[in-house]
C-alpha cells in the first residue's frame, strides 16, 4: 500500500513524482497482490531451498576466509535504508579494496563467487529481505546511498515501491560488469551513463505497472540466467 501523498518524504513530493504516484494509487489491488505474492512465495522458497543454501554457505566457508554473508546498506521504498543480504562472493572487506561497483574479472571475486554470481545464486538470501518487506521479487534494484543522491527528481519516483531482486533493467543490463570492465572511473561512468539508462526502464515499468507484467519479468529473468 502507498502512503498518503502528504506523508511521503519532502524530496519525493515533487511535480516529477506526482504522475507516477497517481498512477500507482489507481492500482491498489495489484499492489496488495504483489505483497501477498512476495511474502508467500519467499517463505515457500526459503523452505524448499534451505538445503541448497546451507550447502552454498559451507562452500563459501571452505573457499575463503570471512563470513558467509555480505551485508551492505542500500535504499528502498520512501528512501528507507536497509541491509541487503547476499552470499559473500568476494574477499573479506572488499569494499576497502576497490570500487563500489563490481566489474568483470574483478580480482576480489572468489572462485566459488564466480559461480554464484554467474547464476545469481548469491542473491538467494534476499528472500529474507523480501519476507521482511525491505524488497520485492520485482522492482528497481536497490542502490547504495551515494548513488541515490545522484537521482534526478523523476528518478525518485522509483522509491514509491520496494526495491526489487530483478527488473526489466536487470535483464537488459545483465552484462553490466562486462560493460564496465575497461572503464577507468567506474563510479562516474555508472552514475552518469549506465544508471540513467537503467532508470529509463525502471520508470517505464513504474508508469505501466502491472502485477501480471512483473510475473513475466520474473520468468524472463530465470530464462536469461539459464541462457
Low-pLDDT residue spans: none
Shape: globular
Count of alpha/pi helices: 9
User: How many DSSP-defined strands?
Assistant: 4
Largest sheet, described in full?
2 strands, antiparallel
Percent of residues in helices comes to: 40-55%
Q: Strands across the major sheet, in which order?
A: 1-2
Strand content: 5-15%
| C-alpha-based Rg, rounded | 18 Å
Query: Structural class of the secondary elements?
Result: mainly alpha
Mean pLDDT: 92
Cα distance spanning the termini? 35 Å
Q: Could you spell the SSE succession in H and E letters?
A: HHEEHHEHEHHHH
Tell me about this structure:
By secondary structure, the protein is mainly α. The protein is 48% helix and 10% strand. It has nine helices and four strands, in the order ααββααβαβαααα. A two-stranded antiparallel sheet has the order 1-2. It has a two-stranded parallel sheet with strand order 3-4. α5 links the parallel β3 and β4. The termini are far apart.
Topology (elements, then pairings):
Blueprint: H1 18-25, H2 28-63, E1 69-75, E2 81-87, H3 111-118, H4 126-132, E3 135-138, H5 145-148, E4 163-166, H6 168-172, H7 176-179, H8 186-207, H9 211-226
Parallel strand pairs: 3-4
Antiparallel strand pairs: 1-2
Helix pairs in contact: 2-4
Annotation keywords:
48% helix, two-stranded antiparallel sheet, 227 residues
Brief summary of the model shown:
With 227 residues, the protein is mainly alpha-helical. It is built from 9 helices and 4 strands; from the N terminus they run H-H-E-E-H-H-E-H-E-H-H-H-H.
